[in-house]
Amino acid sequence: MQRPGGYYLILFFLLLFSACKKEYSYEGGPKSSGFCTNLVAGGTYRVGKAVNDSNFLRVEVHVTTKGFYSITSDTVNGFSFSGSGVVADTGIAELHLDAHGTPAKTETSLFNVRYDSSLCEVQVAVLDSLSNVVQTTNTELFPLAENNTWSYDDLSYPPDSLVNTVTGTSVMNSLPHYTVSDFISFFPATNESYYRRSGADYFGYEAVSTFTSALDYAPTIYDDINFLKDDCQTGQTWSTPIYVGRTSLGLQVAQLRYDFRCIDADAIVAINGKTFLHVYKIEMRPYVADQGAALQATGEIHTSYYARGIGLIYREFFNSILTHPELQIKWWRVN
Q1: Which of 335, 333, 304 is nearest to 318 (CA)?
Q2: Which helix (H) or strand (E) element contains residue 266?
Q3: What b/e sequence results for 278-304 when a residue is b if at least 16 CB atoms lie within 10 Å of its CB, and e otherwise?
Q4: Host domain of residue 105
């Protein structure tokens, strides 16, 4: 049977509309796009114990198109992560993925997570029954007392090591600080750093541009940086002042600020055959801009792990592409 010409005209416009319309998710809204930049695992994972609400992945993404997302990791060692929702704006966003399943064996499991066309990886340590649990009567997160000593594996330059020892006190920024001698076997060399505590806050006297490759002040700007809070809670945030100065080229006036966040205030962490309870994980992120402009994240993330009665036990650095382990504790002597 011959169809009228109008039929083909309608069919043409239907096909044209179908070809030109935006991509939509099966949820009925526009699909978000962008790329993932960093992953952080939350909670403790134990062999044979089903994961619960305390187990999750926090996925940081740079969103170029807002809209709906649905993310599922691969399944590794008996468990996986997934989450869905809507990102309401472009820029940096944090997505929450719940854990599912039961870890099958003791190992460090490597998970792949895709957001749009990007792929990011995260390692999740699965523990056996808690063994070699570290016990201490000291309650400080960063114990400062003369002759306290910490030894670390230098993971950036294995098999080198670092030994930090509190040797006395010094006045910096008009305030008394504990002086810490930092012996680095790689050079070998000995440097000094300076720390103090005020109430629940711990400060390190630093050249403020030390923790970012985005700028270097000249002349150098020094300040007490509040890097840790003894009473911080999971999710708590705080920031340094905004520093303003000329860069090493002498032509640019730049701003710098560090933002801190407690990403876990009660983690269990196994390092070098020892199990540390009630570990605090603290993130530090640099933000920079030209003078008068809005501060923007550099993409760098420093993450430090602190155990009560011991201090710093592990540190890693995300350089906006990969996470690099920096150091892990070998032994310590704390008064």
Answers
A1: 304
A2: strand 253-271
A3: ebbbbbbbbbbbeeeeeeebbbbbbbb
A4: 33-127
Is 203 part of any domain? Answer: yes
Average pLDDT along the chain:
88
Domain contains 246: yes
**Structure tokens belonging to residue 223:** 């300040």
Fill in the DSSP letter of residue 20: H
pLDDT band at 248 (very low <50, low <70, confident <90, very high): confident
Listed residue (151, 212, 153) closest to 182, CA to CA: 151
Amino acid at 138: N
**Residues of 207-218 as b/e, b for ≥16 C-beta within 10 angstroms?**
ebbebbebbebe
Pairing of strands 45-46, 118-127: parallel
pTM for the predicted model, two decimal places: 0.79
Considering the domain architecture, whether residues 300 and 165 belong to the same structural domain is answered as yes
188 and 230 fall within a common domain: yes
Residues 6+ apart with CB under 8 A from 26: none
Span 198-212, average pLDDT: 97
Tokens 């020094």 belong to which residue?
222
Asked if 76 and 181 sit in the same domain, the reply is no
* Structural domain total, the chain: 2
User: Whose structure tokens read 């629940």?
Assistant: 200
Burial class (CB in 10 A: 0-12, 13-18, 19+), 94: exposed
158 and 287, same domain (yes or no): yes
Q: Is 164 found in the same domain as 60?
A: no
Listed residue (109, 84, 32) closest to 63, CA to CA: 32
Q: Among residues 198, 254, 249, 248, which one has the least CA distance to residue 227?
A: 198
State the pLDDT at residue 28: 54
